[in-house]
Design goal:
The chain is of the alpha+beta class and about 650 residues long. Helix content is about 50%, strand content about 20%. The strands form 5 sheets. It has a 5-stranded antiparallel sheet with strand order 9-8-12-11-10. Strands 14-16-17-19-18 form a 5-stranded mixed sheet, covered by helices on one side. The chain has a 4-stranded antiparallel sheet with strand order 4-7-6-5, sandwiched between helices. Strand 10 and strand 11 form a beta hairpin. Helix 2 packs across helix 3 and helix 14 runs antiparallel to helix 15. It starts with 15 loop residues before the first helix and ends in an 8-residue tail after the last strand.
Length: about 650
């Protein structure tokens, strides 16, 4: 015991002051409060941080609730305004709005029912009353310049409205009585000017806002309970840790007192130290024998490990950092046909076809550069090379381990020939489903043709030319959609359609439907070979159907049934990628006929066909439409191809 202090020796002088401080800390229990205070401080910081997180999450949830309610109300108001308001029966709950000064505010139906016009503001008030009755949620439409005095803002709403005029997008605040208020601005849209144009607003102005008042007492009480729970947990943790600190300090003090007593009695036990050394040596001898037995157990464990490795049916191959094989289990022997002795010390490229040697070397380089993270959790498909020269598909997973500074790799190989055979069977099954899907498209096309035939039968009984035209336009729209299913049925792929071929067939069908030949009107098509998904083709097809029908019917009113071909009469359709955007397209439908009046606006048209065109371009194609009137009429449509969306 080289560090023992024999009689006559003293402790080193350099450690005297530090030892005294340590002994004073151990002996005086007052100092034990220091680690307890540190634990208390850490517990307080943790509790404060958790409280702040709960408050932040609580406010975020309340704000999101306010946004959802505001967006619901705003969407409902937008629907109302786009329809120019809606009429409802006059009763005790719905009386005429004295602040709505528009024509036809109150009307009477042919059967005597009295109706009044419900504008967005009136509808918002009624919705607020319903929400207040059902779940205590209240929202209030207000403005700094209200038409209705009851819509005047309170102090909080007035401050929010002024902030919106300064550029703010929303305002939210929590009040002490577990009530949350949210407010966002309302901007003037074209449809809003029916009621607000006399106030001097223009499109895009902030005309007011909607404040949402939501009771959050349930959520507030839940947060309060969580805070109480967190407080109790932190108190329990603090008390537990403090108890452990005091327990260990007590143990240390007890041990230190024992050592102090032993040191005081050291001079009297020198004779006993020799016996302790002898006992220690005997204990060392016992430990050496135990270590020897542990080595024997380790050897036995290694033997069991090798036995298990060799009994696994999968191939397990170990290599060093340079790809040299160091072990090769019986599963690998069965898969590749080699014996372990044949490959030990050779490169693993012996098990890979020669054409894949470069790929294997690159994979080894990436593994050496990036370590396990490159192949971690991955199973790779590879081609194996048997001793008899045959190749087979295999599934490989790779792991590595390190001994001192040397790295080794192990590859677990599985023959997946049977799995590949099953995958081929699955592929054949998918082909059968594709045939079934084609049959569905074929039947949809046939059903639409049956609808067209029924319309033709009904058309025979119509006398009014206006009704006949409506039936003709309806049949053409059905044919435009039926043609999509016909092209899908005939296409090599069920996901996309050749748009050029589709438009050519659609245009020729319309010419035949209206009894117009290319000798009377010259049809020009400029559409490259391009494919679109079914949603895009149907949307574009309906737009082209309406615009081409209008050109055939109205662009050349002077056409007679006996005149010869006049090349100057032209109708054209073209499609090209947009010059301003790589993922957009420009669709042109034009004619050199009489043209539209300069003051004509498509978005205000009363024609069902042009309303359909505007709705499809704006809502389904998410595009824009413009009209040029320099020579005849040219419709310019900018759009992006629709993406497939998951259907519910």
């Amino acid at each position: 015991m080289e560090n023992s202090i024999t009689p006559g020796q003293t402790e080193p002088v350099g450690n005297e002051h530090s030892s005294e401080a340590y002994y004073a800390f151990i002996e005086n229990r007052v100092y034990w409060l220091l680690p307890v205070l540190l634990c208390l401080m850490i517990t307080g910081v943790s509790l404060n941080w958790n409280f702040s997180q709960l408050d932040s999450n609580f406010k975020a949830v309340a704000i999101e609730d306010g946004r959802v309610i505001f967006q619901m109300v705003e969407s409902t108001r937008l629907w109302n305004s786009r329809h120019g308001g809606v009429y409802a029966a006059i009763n005790d709950m719905t009386t005429p709005n004295p602040y709505l000064e528009v024509e036809n505010r109150d009307i009477t139906t042919t059967d005597g029912m009295k109706l009044t016009l419900i504008n967005p503001a009136y509808m918002t008030r009624q919705l607020s009353e319903i929400m207040m009755e059902s779940n205590s949620i209240m929202f209030h439409i207000t403005s700094l310049k209200p038409i209705r005095p009851q819509n005047s803002p309170d102090k909080w709403e007035s401050e929010a409205l002024k902030a919106f005029e300064g550029g703010a997008t929303e305002k939210a605040e929590m009040f002490e009585n577990a009530v949350f208020r949210y407010m966002a601005p309302l901007k003037v849209k074209e449809s809003c000017l029916m009621c607000h144009q006399n106030q001097g607003y223009k499109v895009g102005d902030i005309r007011g806002g909607i404040s949402v008042t939501v009771p959050v007492d349930v959520l507030y009480n839940a947060i309060k309970k969580q805070k109480i729970t967190l407080t109790l947990l932190h108190m329990m943790m603090f008390l537990s840790v403090s108890a452990l600190i005091l327990f260990f300090m007590t143990k240390i003090r007890s041990q230190w007192l024992t050592l102090k007593l032993a040191k005081a009695e050291q001079d009297t036990v020198v004779g006993l130290r020799t016996r302790e050394i002898r006992e220690t040596n005997e204990q060392l001898t016992i430990e050496i024998n135990e270590r020897r037995r542990a080595d024997e157990v380790l050897i036995e464990s290694e033997t069991k490990y090798r036995s298990i490795i060799h009994s696994v049916q999968d191939g397990i191959i170990s290599t060093d950092d340079n790809g040299v094989i160091i072990s090769f289990n019986r599963g690998a022997e069965a898969i590749f046909g080699y014996k372990e002795a044949d490959l030990t010390g050779k490169s693993a490229t012996e098990l890979i076809p020669s054409r894949l040697h470069d790929t294997y070397k690159r994979a080894v380089q990436m593994l050496q550069l990036l370590g396990d993270s490159y192949f971690a959790g991955k199973r790779l498909e590879f081609e194996g090379h048997r001793k008899d020269g045959t190749e087979f598909p295999c599934d490989v997973s790779i792991a590595s381990w390190k001994i001192k500074n040397n790295r080794f790799y192990v590859a677990i190989v599985r023959d997946i020939t049977d799995r590949k055979r099953m995958e081929n069977q699955i592929s054949a099954s998918l082909h059968e489903k594709e045939v079934l899907l084609r049959e569905i498209h074929h039947r949809v096309k046939n059903n639409m043709q049956i609808i067209t035939s029924l319309l033709n039968l009904q058309n025979r009984y119509l006398k009014d030319q206006k009704d006949i035209d409506i039936f003709t336009e309806t049949k053409n729209r059905i044919k435009a959609m039926s043609l999509v299913h016909e092209k899908l049925y005939q296409s090599d792929t069920l996901s996309k359609i050749d748009f050029s071929d589709y438009v050519r067939n659609l245009a020729m069908g319309l010419f035949r439907s209206y009894g117009v030949s290319e000798q009377k009107i010259n049809l020009k098509l400029d559409i490259p070979s391009i494919t679109f998904i079914i949603d895009t083709v149907i949307s574009c097809g309906l737009v082209i159907n309406e615009l081409l029908s209008n050109s055939i019917k109205y662009a050349f009113p002077e056409i007679s049934s006996t005149e010869s071909k006049l090349p100057e009469r032209e109708i054209g359709i073209s499609l090209h990628p947009s010059e301003n955007s790589s993922d957009s397209y420009e669709l042109l439908v034009w004619d050199n006929g009489t043209g539209l009046p300069q003051e004509y606006a498509i978005d205000e048209s009363k024609s069902l066909g042009l309303q359909l065109v505007y709705s499809i371009v704006e809502n389904q194609l998410q595009g824009q439409i413009k009209i040029e009137r320099t020579t005849g009429t040219k419709f310019i449509i900018l759009f992006k191809e629709n993406k497939y969306k998951q259907r519910m």
